[in-house]
Amino acid sequence: MTSSPAYNLSLEATQFSPSVNADWEKGCLSMSGESYPENTYEFFSQVIAWTEQFLATMTSPLTLELHLSYLNTSSIRAMIDIFDLLQDANTEGKNVSVRWLYDNRNPRASELGEEFKEDYTFPFDIVALDMSA
After folding, report:
1. The whole model's pTM is what?
2. What kind and span of H or E run contains 68?
3. How many C-beta atoms surround the C-beta of residue 20 within 10 A?
């Protein structure tokens, strides 16, 4: 009998790090909040490990849903590492996508999403949310 590598990842948001919810069965990894953790590598290593394991063992689609209002430079580097994993998977024919959600009152968040999108060929949707209501 083989053991399944499937697992979910759930990290609560802090003042310095986003909430993370990774659902293996749904093929969805979501992050929400601000990202400037003290030890970026330690925080994102869990997310990167989950993504690597999912992409290595699953054939179902993976959607990365991001609603990040602020990322420091180290967090941006970590996101690039995740996007690079998605790009490699996309090149191998796997179904991956990103949904970049942003507050329509925060144009910088939209611009950052656009900057990321330019570098990748997988589906990358940028969606404005009306947060004024």
Report:
1. 0.91
2. strand 62-71
3. 21
